[in-house]
Design a protein that fits this description.
mainly alpha; four-stranded antiparallel sheet; 29 helices; 4 strands
């Protein structure tokens, strides 16, 4: 890459304004013609100052001057170049000076800010695709090609484009472990524009000869304005499923409205109830219903915690997704050294907030069920979990596996296919079976997962499986159950502490660690249930305590409340900012053993303990303005969307990122603005998924398994929400049932 950049720099510096060739002299052989063509493409009658023969060409010889054009065009003299490509190159060179000038103008050239890390030069994607020439014998289009390659010392890359897995694997390691070694060990991308008759194989063969084995081409993705992506069998099946679901939503909404207008409410109790669960109008009202008067046993502050935690996750992911598109990547170290950036550098604790809420709601709900029924149907307990989570995950996997490629366009769209579509076609089943955190790694130790963030649902489901083993003893044998839970709590902090010290891992998933270290930390600590159980166990304790509180009221003194808030704030801030000295880019990492043991083992549990106080204080009347803020009714709709937002977030962010036409300049303000835009689009996508599969599946489950909401009000009544224009009695029924459904929609996942 260095040779290419400096060669191009000197070419631009020394090229004169003289025409390379105007005519091919009699006797010039094919090799000389090809040599002149490569030098002078884009010159001809317009005498382009950038591509004319100057002193550098005359003194440097062919090898010095012919290398850089061949990074952009298939070689005329290369035996691997197709005859059709050669003919079209020659025709454009001799007869179409304006077309070739625009073609060269659209090439990605040396960008400004090389030393700031602006190494990707995409050129003008839109300009290249707009080029077109037609006559009786020629139909020429501009073909934009995005070339991605990297230095690969000691190896000679093959012209077979399928032999590029290793460099893509390196890039994926870098993506998972923060910046790591994205530059210079990641790949470099530039754009070129070639005649449409030339293929990516023609271009790849020429680049292969030009680089002489010093680099490996990882991908060449070419497209013209008239290319049409063909529908596969999988695409057709998925589109058919979507059409069927949307049809059910519209038809059921029409039937729903007709029943209200005709005042035939008894029809809801018959066979039509299986159709009405898909009603767009009813499910939309339920989703966006706001209840201002919650029952005493409703933990209302969870709504605010959910939404804020999901916003934090989106903000952190925005940095991760955009890191490939930063034009000033080498300055990221100085821009992220401040204390404020630790909110992003240590944002992984936002996921522990969800683990905490998962344990909290599972514990609280099971304890109420045991008190009410005296037993727990474990089979139904597990089936409900699978039915609740799997359909939205399956729909998302189906989208990524099939039609997602239709929604990206631009220089980087080919990379989206590599990172998402191709991987999903092989590994989608791991997300649906919740085993991707164990089986999602390839032979190189790199996670290959369809929905990357679904490691969370896998870990949370695996913890969910052991919940009855902890909660049933707490109910039937409280003393033994509490001893068992204390033992599990101790184990949940000792295991990550020991693994961190023995494996010499960083105390947390901090930024700037070498790619290999970050990847191993992900595999052996970050996505394993035994290392993420700490926050979940704290949630189990909190749910159990809140359940016991509902039966026996106690009061706290003012100093006790103040001490609780001060202690919780100190614990949360210590976890969030405690890694400031380590959490820096491009700095050597030497970890203190005591820091590895204490922070590595305890920080996620301590974070959850701080949240536990917040929930306890808010629920018991000691939350003050914090409870007023977190329990504000406006949080409720977004809170119900957090699971599908979690599924849609990276999908939407990557679709936007890989559709970029130009790099972006990294600033904190820029990322915040992009996060806000992404969150708006993610919310819309999440609403669609919720109304399409999540809400109908929950409705079907209630019918098939006779599950009603946990709240006593509305028990046995229909979940239907009639039109507001009906009678007062109907509106009252609507309010009661909406409250019931909003409580029953509380989930143990984000």
């Amino acid at each position: 890459m260095t040779n290419f950049l400096w060669t191009t720099f000197f070419v631009f510096l020394f090229l004169g304004n003289r025409q390379v060739i105007s005519e091919t002299e009699e006797g010039t052989d094919q090799e000389d013609l090809g040599w002149n063509l490569q030098e002078g493409f884009g010159t001809g009658q317009n005498r382009s100052p950038f591509f004319s023969r100057g002193p550098f060409f005359r003194s440097g010889g062919r090898n010095a001057s012919s290398g850089w054009p061949r990074m952009y065009l298939p070689s005329f003299v290369n035996a691997s170049t197709s005859a059709k490509c050669k003919d079209e190159l020659l025709f454009v060179f001799k007869n179409l000076p304006d077309l070739r000038a625009q073609m060269v103008d659209s090439w990605g050239k040396i960008p400004d800010g090389l030393f700031m890390g602006n190494l990707d030069s995409d050129g003008s994607y839109s300009q290249c695709l707009s080029l077109k020439y037609n006559d009786q014998s020629h139909a020429i289009l501009g073909k934009y090609c995005s070339v991605t390659y990297s230095r690969w010392p000691g190896s000679r890359y093959s012209s077979d484009l399928r032999s590029s897995d290793e460099i893509l694997t390196n890039a994926r390691i870098a993506q998972w472990s923060g910046v790591g070694d994205v530059y210079p060990l990641g790949f470099i991308t530039y754009g070129t524009c070639i005649p449409s008759a030339c293929t990516k194989e023609d271009l790849n063969a020429t680049i292969d000869d030009t680089l002489e084995g010093n680099h490996i081409v990882s991908q060449i993705h070419c497209v013209t304005a008239e290319d049409q992506i063909q529908l596969s069998a999988g695409d057709i099946v998925f589109i058919t499923v979507l059409v069927l679901l949307f049809t059910l939503m519209v038809v059921s909404a029409a039937v729903d409205i007709y029943i209200d207008l005709a005042d035939k409410q008894d029809a809801r109790k018959g066979t039509l109830r299986y159709l009405l669960v898909f009603s767009l109008s009813t499910n939309f009202r339920k989703l966006f219903h706001v209840s201002e008067n919650n029952a005493p046993d409703t933990i209302s502050c969870v709504h605010g915690i959910r939404v804020l935690s999901m916003s934090w996750v989106l903000w952190g992911h925005q940095h991760l997704v955009n890191i490939k598109f930063f034009s000033n990547i080498m300055t990221i170290g100085t821009k992220t050294t401040g204390l404020f950036f630790q909110i992003i550098g240590n944002a992984t604790v936002s996921v522990d907030s969800f683990f905490f809420m998962s344990g909290l709601l599972v514990s609280y709900g099971v304890m109420k069920e045991l008190q009410k029924r005296g037993r727990l149907d474990v089979i139904t307990f597990y089936v409900h979990r699978f039915i609740r989570l799997t359909p939205p995950i399956a729909l998302t996997c189906g989208y990524l596996t099939t039609i997602s490629r239709f929604f990206t366009s631009g220089p980087r769209s080919g990379l989206f296919d590599t990172f998402q579509s191709n991987i999903c076609q092989k590994h989608w089943w791991k997300d649906i079976l919740y085993v991707n955190n164990f089986l999602g790694y390839n032979e190189k130790g790199v996670m290959e997962d369809c929905i990357g963030q679904c490691w969370y649902t896998a870990v949370d489901t695996q913890l969910f499986l052991i919940a009855p083993l902890l909660l049933l003893p707490l109910h039937f044998y409280p003393g033994i159950g509490q001893i068992l839970l204390c033992f599990v709590s101790l184990v949940s902090v000792m295991i990550p502490a020991i693994i961190t010290v023995v494996g010499d891992y960083p105390p947390g998933l901090i930024t700037g660690v070498p790619a290999g270290v970050g990847n191993r930390y992900m595999r052996y600590i970050y996505v394993t249930p035994w290392c993420r159980a700490g926050a979940w166990i704290v949630g189990i304790w909190t749910g159990y305590i809140l359940f016991k509180y509902n039966q026996k009221r106690f009061s706290l003194k003012t100093w006790q409340v103040a001490a609780g808030w001060v202690t919780a704030a100190f614990m949360a801030l210590s976890v969030l900012f405690g890694m400031w000295s380590y959490n820096q880019f491009f700095q050597p990492k030497e970890y203190d053993v005591m820091t590895q043991f204490l922070y590595g083992g305890f920080h996620r549990t301590v974070w959850a303990m701080a949240l536990a106080w917040v929930v306890f204080a808010c629920h018991t009347g000691y939350g003050g303005f914090v409870n007023t803020f977190l329990s504000y009714p406006a949080w409720q709709p977004l809170s119900r969307l957090t699971f599908t937002m979690f599924l849609m977030s990276i999908l939407v962010q990557q679709t936007i990122g890989f559709s970029r036409k130009t790099p972006i300049y990294f600033t904190l303000t820029e990322i915040i603005l992009e996060t806000c835009g992404s969150m708006f689009i993610v919310s819309i996508a999440a609403t669609i998924v919720t109304l399409t599969v999540e809400s109908p599946i929950i409705g079907l489950e209630k019918i098939l398994f006779g599950r009603s909401g946990p709240a006593p009000r509305g028990k046995g009544k229909s979940d239907h929400v009639p039109l507001a224009s009906r009678s007062v009695a109907l509106r009252q029924t609507w309010r009661k049932n909406s409250k019931s459904s909003s409580k029953s929609s509380t989930s143990s996942v984000p």
